[in-house]
Amino acid sequence: MSLDLPLVFAALMGVAVLAYVVLDGYDLGVGMLMPAADAREQELMVASIGPFWDANETWLVLGVGILLVAFPVAHGVVLGALYLPVAAMLIGLMLRGVAFEFRVKAEGWHRELWNWLFWLGSFIASFAQGLMLGRYITGFDSGFGYLLFGLVVGAGLCGGYVLLGATWLIYKTEGTLQKKALAWARWGLLWVALGVAAVSLATPLVSQTVQMKWFDFPRTLGLMLLPLVTLWAWIGVWRSTDRLSRGVAGAGEWAPFAGAVAIFVLAFIGLAYSLFPYVVIDRLTFWDAAAHPSSLKVVLIGALIVLPFIVAYTAFSYYVFRGKARAGLYD
Amino acid sequence: MDNPDLLLLARAQFGLNIGFHILFPSLTIALAWILVYFRIRYARSGDAAWLATYKLWVKIFALTFAMGVVTGITMSFQFGTNWPGFMKHVGNIAGPLLAFEVLTAFFLEATFLGVMLFGMNRVPAWVHIGATVLVALGTLLSAFWILALNSWMHTPAGHMTMDGALIAGDWLQVIFNPSFPYRFAHMLLASGLTASFVVAGLSAWRLLHAGTDASASRTLRTGVVIAAVIAPLQIFVGDLHGLNTLEHQPAKIAAIEALWKTERGAPLVLFAVPNAETRHNDFAIDVPKLASLILKHDPNGEVKGIEEFAPSAPGADQLAPPVAPLFFGFRLMLAVGMSMLALAWIGAWVLRKGAAPPRWLLWSLAGFTFSGWVATLSGWLVTEIGRQPWLVTGILRTSQALGRIPEAQLGASLTGYVLVYALMLAAYMGVITHLAGKGAAPTRAEAV
User: Fold this and answer.
1) Is residue A224 predicted with pLDDT exceeding 80?
2) Rounded to 10 degrees, what is the CA torsion of B342, B347, B349, B350?
């Protein structure tokens, strides 16, 4: 088979990670926004993500699974180097996952406690993921500057998830909660603008490899499209939230979320372009780290058969739970 | 890598995570099918009491499932963090099996769980029943793939070496390796017992509180009947699994039976304190020739002892597992399993012809609510410790798979996990007992 299997799996892993970041991103964002809402609104917020969060997290397992299966050497290096943030993220995901179920069944201060743990878990998981991304981009180099970079990316990703969460709520709710979500989305947008700007300025400074990829004329001119389109998407989200807050007729409630997803996709493309062909920057390329072709082949065949089904029933699930979220999840 | 402390710490952490994780799937695999039963009973009868029953147990299921999901995500990371050598050496076999679990099972169950939990009023009844069946199917598929991999680690088959890498020669042989059918059946039945005792136990708890409760009386009966049918099957399958282990992993059996020396007419050690220093059993109570009779169906058959696999000569390669944990773990599993059989049969006898359950039975069942966990965990400890020093029998030692995580980081994260798990387990047991104590709330009949 002349198919470049490591490349195919790199693309599959990219799709899985991007799907994870966008999908779990919105429900983590909703989790982080919980303290800003009152008790009635919190029920609606939870109801808007209830049917989806579990499947959303499965994309993380698929992404890590592909790393494990297709690039076993890189799996060891990456997760070994990110040991503590990974542990923190897992504990965060555990707390929020069970808090989600426990809070529904709890009463009184117990429910308050689980609400708080839901927020805390969402925040820890989001921040840890950003920190992991920061450490990953810099090849896990140690030193204060690199740590600071990781912290900035962590904060930036939290902002990004808040943006996704707020725009999701604009789409899935109405009335006062939607109004609040519009304001949250604005804050998320500003936060994201700061984060993306800081990370874009700092990345070529902390990584020579990225610097060379970015400032490689004349390709740089083509690459300039990426920030320009991102800026256009950013302005698009800002304007659509503005139109919605002013109650302009015909303003699409889905538009802010679509714009936020576009910003994530563009940032992801930029990241993928910067890092390619490395799975561990400056150390391992996808081809260095790839598993034996025989096992890649069998997984690819399986994935090609099963993925259409996954996409189909995921679409079915979003269709079943279309429209505005309603309280009283279990009724 | 020779660092016994690090190895022990990494094993303790992995063992804690996987042991904590297994509690929840071992309940959901079978509980999912019990829910299918409740859902179909409601659809056919239109009886609001069945709906209330379904709604109560779906809540308990959702909570258990969430616990399983979040603790399971941890596992997919720890393969890499704690055992990078595992994927490096056998990743071409383990990887695809894990990938198929994610692709065929995880997405299926996670997506349809949403429809099952929140979609009852949004989709037609047959779609909702279908979603419930697909969730159950997903948990079953998940067990299938993970037990195929685990069994392959115990009794590897179907692999070959090409370009210096271990790869699959025949996937059917890899999946249906010699111990797989027994281990898979043993695990599914264990889940059936665990779930039926949880159902019976929590229903008994409700009846003790409320005196009478139509839903709890029904589910008590459901649990007891399932347990009474499955318990003897499990003992039969467990015995077959044991004979299969004797054939493929004789060192594990030697340790379980605390047989230090290879001998004809080996005694069955009923009780003893195995002493690894002197390679001898202290305070032993034996039944002469019985081990030979059970294992070889011949009172004078030869049974291999620990010395066969771990000679006492200095410097000899030690290829036997530690005796004491296997000896005691096995006996604990057996004792709990036999008690479950006895209680299930007594319960079924007492409840025959619709008799009301006496309080002593309710208390016994309530006390046995989580007995399946004790039996399952001790069984898993026996079989996994029994594979040592191998990670993959004959192919890869556990010590060869160990990563280079600093001990301080392992210790810190282990502490974190212990704290979070303690909180989660306490909350979990508290909440499901509370839910069951409140009982199934009567609701109006909805979309049948």
Assistant:
1) yes
2) 140
Count of domains observed in chain A: 1
Contacts of B259 by beta carbon, 8 Å cutoff, 6+ apart: B266, B269, B291, B303, B304, B305, B306
Residue range A271-277: mean pLDDT, rounded: 85
Q: Are B138 and B114 in contact (CB under 8 A)?
A: no
> Smallest CA–CA separation between A152 and chain B, in Å?
23
Owner of token pair 């619709």: B354
Distance from CA of A17 to the nearest CA of B (A): 14
Q: What band does B2 get if pLDDT is binned at 50, 70 and 90?
A: low
All residues of chain A having their beta carbon less than 8 Å from the beta carbon of residue B431 are 102, 105-106
* A52 interaction partners in chain B (CB closer than 8 Å): 114
Answer yes or no: is A96 within a domain: yes
Helix (H) / strand (E) containing A285: strand A284-285
Which residues, including other chains, have CB under 8 Å from residue B356's CB and lie 6 or more apart?
B217
pLDDT higher for A21 or B270? A21
Cα–Cα distances (Å) from A47 to A248, A329, B114, B211, in that order, read 27, 6, 11, 35
Eight-class DSSP state of B268: E
A38 has a pLDDT exceeding 80:
yes
DSSP β-ladder status, B302-303 and B159-162? unpaired
Domain with A283 in it? 7-291
Average the pLDDT over B202-225 and give the result: 88
Tell if the CB–CB gap between A61 and B76 is shorter than 8 Å: yes
Mind telling me how many Å the CA of A13 is from chain B's nearest CA?
12
Residue B75 at interface with chain A, using a CB cutoff of 8 Å = no
Distance CA B202, CA B208 (A): 10
SS3 content of chain A, % helix, strand, coil (to 5): 80, 0, 15
DSSP states along B161-222: EETTEEEES-HHHHHT-TTHHHHHHHHHHHHHHHHHHHHHHHHHHHHHHHS--HHHHHHHHH
- Residue A295: burial class (beta carbons within 10 Å; 0-12, 13-18, 19+): buried
| CA gap B223, B200 in Å, rounded | 5
* Yes or no, beta carbons of A94 and B122 under 8 Å apart: no
Q: Where are the domains of chain B?
A: 4-262+304-438
At B322, which helix (H) or strand (E)? none
The answer to whether A9 contacts chain B (CB < 8 Å) is no
**CA B6, CA B143: separation in Å to the nearest integer?**
30
- Asked if B403 and A78 come within 8 Å (Cβ–Cβ), the reply is no
Structure tokens at B399: 């010590």
Residue B93 near chain A (CB below 8 Å): yes
Q: Tell me what the mean pLDDT of segment B58-64 comes to.
A: 89
The verdict on a CB contact (< 8 Å) between B114 and A91 is: no
A57·B121 Cβ contact <8 A? no
A329: phi then psi, degrees, rounded to nearest 5: -55, -40
pTM: 0.88
